[in-house]
Amino acid sequence: MSDRTGARVRERAAWLLPAAIVLIALNLRGPVVAVAPVIGDVRHDLGLTPTVAGLLTTIPVLCFALATPLASWVIARLDPERAVTASLVGVLAGTLLRSAGTSWALVAGTALIGIAITIGNVVVPVVIRRDSSPERVGIVTGVYTSALNVGSMITSLGTAPLAAVVGWPVAIAIWGVFVLIAAAAWSRAVGVRAALRGPIIASAEPLPVTGPIDQVLVPETQRHATAPAPARRRVTWGLVLAFAGQAFSYYALTAWIPTLLHDEIGFDTASAGASSSVFQILAVVGALGVPVLASRWRPRSIIVLVSLFWLAMPIGLLLAPQLWLLWSICGGAAQGGGITVVFIIVVRLVTTDADARRMSALVQGGGYLLGSAGPLVAGTLHEVSGGWTVPLLVVVGAVLVLGVSGTIAARNVD
User: Where are the domains of the chain?
Assistant: First the structure.
């Protein structure tokens, strides 16, 4: 390849890969929440019990945890390119199966979607780490996590109006169009990457040598040979706890904010549901803001800031629930920033694709396993205590776990 041709290919890749990652991310959370806006119609048509209906949102989160070893194995057996494709194919197949109009297809399709998304959860950070230059990793990660929340927002807002026109089976199936668009973009990005070697989202200027000297001078294969496995590194378990604190707080509040606003302020069901969307939308601010801070601040300083914003939400709802909009803005930005900064730390710690795959799988698998208990714990404590004080105090504790564990783990990349 001539220098001129290589420059053109690299220029195309510099925007094509981030675009493909954004389109992929739209499909890694949106399908999880697609059924929620029409759950009443689904229950009526299929005769679902409340327990089965609840499984439709619980199954994917459990898959994020329990299917992570399977996802890691799939990525190792295939490669990142084929693993992303497998994830998209699985999401599309699950989306179509889920809309078949029977209760067993609904549950089976949801489980398939959860497993397929788990593969995407693990492999996309590997791709970002591999194909982004070090100073661009943060912003690409931020764009990726922002797109996760945008996908949820689009699906949440669009499913009910579509169902009113075409019925709920078509309304939840139509989001498969996003999968097809993402697959086309990914196929093109893979073709462009095949013509290149090394990071393809590179900077215009050479990078200064700022990392530890052994990471700069020692070949990657040798570093991989001497680096301990992620499960044997204390920093990995610190990140597991940090991710668990983030996930627990997020899923607990996501599940119960509408009910809390109804109980504490008197919002009707529709208003409470719409109000809780602020918490989701503001995640984009945190997801994009953290990479900007990461270019100037140390990761542990960012985690402290994120934790303070996170704490404002449960404490604010305890002391002044009427200011729910302010607390939702703080918590929304924090939850978007929290997951982003953990991903940035993981990417900075790893040295090879295999190391990235293993650490990403362990951090997300363990974190989601603990975090999936958030809605159940918060709901049970609310029922037992008869109020929201105890559940919100538990969320405060989970945020403190994020802050303390994340700050300790981040020392390894300062």
Answer: 3-199, 226-413
